[in-house]
Amino acid sequence: MRYALLINERPGADDPLDEHERAALSAEYMAFHDDPRVIGGEHLQSAETATTVRIADGEILLTDGPFADTKEIFGGYFLVEAPDLDSALEVACRVPALRFGGSVEVRPLGSPSR
């Protein structure tokens, strides 16, 4: 079964890191792609680069940023092919954002009905 690991980060949580610590953190994230259960994933640019689309009264509204009142922002994701939830959770528990106060939502992917 495929799972999405949705990584929520605390903005600025890694600001205190120096250049070497940031490089080590980046390498830690890249190492996830060596796990055969990880079939994809990307890091998102900062929330300030987002555009949110809504429809209100039949009109499309575009606004800059997520404008979410939250202490965490969606920062990236991994797609995992795992035999069960426990295996997907094992991968999720290694996500570095957890050490910086973030969270990882693990959600099975649905199959579109046709």
From TrEMBL:
The YCII-related domain extends over 1-108
Which Gene3D superfamilies does this one have? Dimeric alpha+beta barrel
**InterPro entries listed in its UniProt record:** Dimeric_a/b-barrel (IPR011008), YCII (IPR005545)
Alphabetical list of Pfam families matching this protein? YCII
Hey, which family's this protein in?
Answer: Belongs to the YciI family.
Q: What is this protein called?
A: YCII-related domain-containing protein
- Please name the source species: Pseudonocardia hierapolitana
Please spell out the taxonomic lineage of the organism that makes this protein: Bacteria, Bacillati, Actinomycetota, Actinomycetes, Pseudonocardiales
